[in-house]
Amino acid sequence: MANEPNQAVEDRWAQRTEQLLRDAGISTGMRVLDVGCGRGDVSFMAARLVGETGLVIGLDRDERATSTATERAHDLGIKNTQFIAGDLHAPPIAGPPYDAIIGRRVLMYQPDRVAALRSLVAALQPGGIVAFQEADATMLPASPKPHPLHEQVTRWLWQTVEREGATTTMGFELPIALEAAGLKVEGQRAEAIIQTKHHRHVTAWIVRAVMPRILERGVASEAEIDIETLDARLAEELHQTNGAFIGDMIFSAWARKPLRSEA
User: Fold this and answer.
1) Of 155, 137, 149, nearest to 237 (Cα)?
2) What is the pLDDT of residues 71-94, one digit of tens each?
3) If residue 28 lies in a helix (H) or strand (E), which one and from where to where?
4) Alpha carbon separation from 13 to 37, 70, 193 (Å, rounded)
5) Over residues 89-102, mean pLDDT
6) C-alpha separations of 5 from 11, 12, 123, 209, 211 in Å
7) Which of 130-134, 189-193, 249-253, 257-261 comes out lowest in average pLDDT?
8) Which residues lie below 8 Å from residue 72, measured CB to CB, with a gap of 6+?
9) Residue 156 above 90 pLDDT?
10) pLDDT tens string 182-238
11) Are 66 and 92 contacting, i.e. CB atoms less than 8 angstroms apart?
């Protein structure tokens, strides 16, 4: 039971992430770098698209995360992935330049996202693809009806991220950052996750997972959160309002490195 909410969270993002990779042009035989790969979810998605003749290299500064990703790849029988602990400002360059560089929820944590992108672009072949997906708090929370508890929880989550040094407007900044790094943007979109009493998000599970960070940053107390009753209270609020609430937005953009003749 404990793993079900986690899967639900990933499914919400996974559909949108896979569509981004397909729209950007990730395909058979490519050599792909997944920055901020974490436990490997996006890397495995890309690995399916590039097939046996392709290769996905996952990069993350957390060695524990890359070790977990390596173990997961072994358990899942995924042989066209490698995971390396390191800094995205110094991407691994053994072998030919990458055909594509991808990432999810990683640029928002970079103090200088343009500098980070330029370091990555240097490891990309001319004509290569860059595709990123980021969250953004600019228009959140959103609803035509008041949802006080949902609104409060959304603020808790974003205040925590902000106090950790992340950029809360990265979604809107994404295409601008790609262009500033010398890339030609080919597509972009923003999508909202809409909650109703019949289609709820796993908000309480997310809060439980992030709770140590919420407490550490002084955003809310355990008593204010009341985690054991939070899910029931969120469900009751949606039932009472019979309305729609948006607490999560996903921004996607993809671009290409100009060919030498275009530079």
Assistant:
1) 149
2) 999 999 999 999 999 999 999 888
3) none
4) 14, 22, 10
5) 92
6) 10, 11, 37, 11, 15
7) 257-261
8) 39, 40, 44, 78
9) yes
10) 999 999 999 999 999 999 988 999 999 999 999 999 999 999 999 999 999 999 999
11) no
Please tell me the distance from the alpha carbon of residue 94 to that of residue 35, in angstroms, as a whole number: 16
pLDDT beyond 50 at 63: yes
d(CA 55, CA 98): 10
Q: Among positive and negative, which fits the CA dihedral 224, 230, 236, 242?
A: positive
Q: Considering the chain, what is the average pLDDT of its residues?
A: 94
Q: For the chain, list the domains and their CATH numbers.
A: 3-256 (3.40.50.150)
Tokens of 223: 């008593």
> What is the spatial distance between Cα 207 and Cα 197, in angstroms, rounded to a whole number?
19
**Token representation of residue 191:** 């999508």
Task: Report phi then psi at 87, rounded to 5.
Answer: -100, 135
In the 8-state DSSP scheme, what is residue 96?
S
What is the DSSP code (8-state) at residue 142?
Answer: B
Residue 25 CA to residue 22 CA, distance in Å, equals: 5
Phi, psi dihedral angles at 170 (to 5 degrees): -65, -30
